[in-house]
Amino acid sequence: MSKKKVVVSLGHEALGYTTTEQWDAVKVTAKALADLVESDYQLTITHSNGPQVSMIHKAMTELRRVYIDYTPAPMCVCSAMSQGYVGYDIQNALRTELLARGISKSVSTILTQVTVDPYDEAFYEPTKVIGRHMSKEDAEIETKKGNYVIEVPGKGFRRVVAAPKPIDIVEIEAIRTLADAGQVVIACGGGGIPVIEQNHVLKGASAVIEKDAIAGKLASDLKVDELIILTSVPFVYRDFGKESQAPIERMSLSEAKEMISKDEFGKGTMLPKIEAAITYLEANPNGSVLITSLNAIADAIKGKQGTTITA
C-alpha cells in the first residue's frame, strides 16, 4: 500500500513558548507524529515560530545594546535562527521516538527561503508585533531607521513588521526530493525566511510570513494527499465562543468561503487556517484538509474527531 503524503502544520501548542517548554512539548509532539508515521503517512512538517523568533529578536537587540560593536540581527536572520533551533528540537525528538518504535527513518530540517512581493500591501500596513517593550526614546530610534512601532498603553512601545503573502518556496525541489525518498522533512518553519528577489539575488525582508499561509502553499506545491493543520481546538466551530457554538465535522470548499463572507472565523486564529485550506484545495481539488488539535489527532485520522474540508 502506498503511503499517504501529507503536510502537517504544527501550532504553538506543539512547541511551547520558552526553551524549556519546547524541550518538553516536542517529546509529546513527536509521539503524535510517530503515530502518523506508523499509520503509513509520509510526513512533511512545517511549524509556527512566533514566540521563538520574538525571543531571538529580543536577545539580539539586547546584545547590541550591551555590546555596541555587535550589529543588530535583521528579522530575516532571526527567522533563520528560529528555523534551525525549532527544527533541531523536532527532528531529534521525532528521530528518538521513531527509533524507540523500531523505525529507522531520516528526519531532516531544511532552512527554507520564501519569496515575497516588495509591493505587497502588507508592507504598507504592518501588523505583526515582535520584540521587547521599548521606551519612547528607543521607539523614536526605530522609527528613524524606517521601522514601524506601536504604543502599548502602560507598557511602552513595540515594533511591528509586515506579514506579506508567500510567492515561491525557493528550496521546494530539495524538499520534494527528500519527501519522495521517503524521508520526514521539516521545512518552511515559521512561514519561511522572507526574501525579495532582485536580479537573481535573494535579499532578506523585514517581515514574517503567516505559518498557515505557507502550509497551504507547501501542500499545494508538493501535491500531497492531505493537509493536516494542528491547532488548539479539536474542531472548527460554528459560532465559536457563543452559547450556540457547535463543532463542524465536514465542510465543503463553498461552505468555507460562505462562512468567511459571514465573518464566522477569528482573523488571527481560525481564519488563516481556513484560507490555507482554500489555497490548497483550489490547487489540489482531489485532496482533503483536516483541522484538529494535537491531542485529538489519533482519533481524527480515524474520523472520530476533527473537521474535514474537501472541494
What can be said about this structure in brief?
With 311 residues, the protein is of the alpha/beta class.
What does this molecule look like?
- This protein has about 300 residues and is an alpha/beta fold.
- It is about 40% helix and about 25% strand.
- It contains nine helices and 16 strands.
- The chain has helices at about 20-40, 50-65, 75-100, 135-145, 170-180, 210-220, 255-260, 270-285, 295-300; strands at about 5-10, 40-45, 105-110, 115, 130-135, 150, 155-160, 185, 195-200, 200-205, 225-230, 235-240, 245-250, 250, 290-295, 305-310.
- The protein has an eight-stranded mixed β-sheet, with helices on both faces.
- Helix 1 links the parallel strand 1 and strand 2 (about 40-45).
- Helix 2 crosses helix 3, helix 6 (about 210-220) packs parallel to helix 8 and helix 7 (about 255-260) runs antiparallel to helix 8 (about 270-285).
- The relative contact order is 0.15.
Number of extended strands: 16
Task: List the total number of helices.
Answer: 9
Described by strand count, sense and barrel closure, the largest sheet is: 8 strands, mixed
In order across it, which strands form the biggest sheet?
3-8-2-1-11-15-16-14
Unreliable spans: none
Strand content: 25-35%
Our measurement of the CA-to-CA distance between the termini, rounded to an integer number of angstroms, reads 25 Å
**Shape category:** globular
Output the radius of gyration.
20 Å
The secondary-structure element order is EHEHHEEEHEEHEEEHEEEEHHEHE
Overall structural class, as computed from helix and strand content, comes to alpha/beta
Average pLDDT level: 93
- Indicate the percent of residues in helices: 25-40%
